[in-house]
Amino acid sequence: MDFSKGHGTENDFVVLPDPDVRLDLTVPRVKALCDRRRGLGADGVLRVAKAGALAEAGVLADLPEGTSADDWFMDYRNADGSLAEMCGNGVRVFAHYLLSTGLETREEFVVGSRAGGKPVVVHSSDGPLGDVTVDMGKIRDLGSSAATLDGKVFNGIGIDVGNPHLACVDPHLTAASLSALDLTAAPGFDPGFFPHGVNVEILTRIDSGAVDMRVHERGVGETRSCGTGTVAAATAALRHEGSDSGEVVVRIPGGQVTVAVSEGRATLRGPSVLVASGSIDDSWWNALT
Ligand SMILES: N[C@H](CCC[C@H](N)C(=O)O)C(=O)O
A Pfam family this protein belongs to (predicted)? Predict the structure, then answer.
């Protein structure tokens, strides 16, 4: 079975073209594929299929809002095999992949996701390097909550970007003290507030239009970047300055992206890199049940 490997600011994914929806993405298979020793290694898996084909195969119960049957659908799984509604870095890699393989010929189109249709603009896709803007849609404020990590409490805002986030702005944090935080353990959070788990972002306040952020992702662990997380972070950072709109450069360990927030919606612009393509041994895959 064919695969490609790509990343968006070093949040990396195995891309699986599956137009006939033949693959059964069981938890053991996704976990093995994402394992950096016994598999290819990735933060997540992006299955490529039309939304209508996924609905016919029963992978989707129905077509999410803003998604038509003929849209290519990003069927995203976290490295632990769990489903997540949306993946901002993944959509950029997915859109770049579609153009690079000729599955899509337009530069502006909609990518389907469990969080709804996401319009994309592929500004460039020259070989391995892409530059993509994603309309991330509505950003919903879930109210105040807090995370505990590295023996400290971080107050933050719950933000729904299609998937759940807890974005914690610490005005005393610097890029240096942020990089010194220990994020190896999963942050503590209020399970009553986030009954389905949460992606946790820790970030500095805005300085010269930019913030520094690290993230511990639900179903993955600390990643070099999280696209939906950068949207949550930018929203919280603007809120911390008393604003509900603006453009924020978010610096993450894997690079940087630009988030624009306005009237409760956001766009995310950033790079995409397609590193490799190859084939996965079918018997290896089939033996994983
Ligand atoms: N890496 C993804 C986020 C995955 C979110 C996933 N960890 C979840 O369970 O919501 C991104 O770039 O937005």
Answer: DAP_epimerase
What are the structural domain ranges in the chain? 2-134+272-287, 140-263
Residues with CB under 6 Å of ligand 1 are 11, 43, 78, 84, 87-90, 163, 199, 217-220, 226-228
Nearest CA to ligand 1 atom 5: 87
8 Å CB contact between 12 and 45: no
Best of 34, 217, 225, 269 to mutate for ligand 1, by most ligand atoms within 8 A of CB? Answer: 217
C-alpha 214/C-alpha 217 separation (Å) is 10
Nearest atom of ligand 1 to the alpha carbon of 82:
9
Mean pLDDT score, 127-137: 97
The answer to whether 2-134+272-287 and 140-263 have equal CATH topology is: yes
Instruction: Name which of 94, 121, 91 is nearest 109 in CA terms.
Output: 121
Is 88 annotated in a binding site? The answer is yes
Examine the pLDDT at 289 and tell me if it is beyond 90.
no
Burial tier of 141 (Cβ tally within 10 Å: 0-12, 13-18, 19+): middle
Average pLDDT, integer, range 249-255: 98
Active site residues: 87, 226
What is the Å distance from ligand 1's center to 164 Cα?
9
Which of 163, 178, 161 is CA-nearest to residue 219?
A: 163
User: What superfamily does domain 140-263 belong to in CATH?
Assistant: Diaminopimelate Epimerase; Chain A, domain 1 (3.10.310.10)
Sorting pLDDT into bands at 50, 70 and 90, what band is 288? very high
Residue 126 pLDDT grade (very low, low, confident, very high; cuts 50, 70, 90): confident
Alpha-carbon 193 to chain mean position: 21
Say which CATH superfamily domain 2-134+272-287 falls into. Diaminopimelate Epimerase; Chain A, domain 1 (3.10.310.10)
Among 7, 10, 15, 163, say which to mutate for ligand 1: greatest number of ligand atoms within 8 Å of CB: 163
Distance between Cα 87 and ligand 1 center (Å): 5
Predicted confidence (pLDDT) per residue in 51-110, tens digit: 999 999 999 999 999 999 999 999 999 999 999 999 999 999 999 999 999 999 999 999
- 3-class DSSP state of 218: coil
- What ligand 1 atom has the least distance to the C-alpha of 165? 10
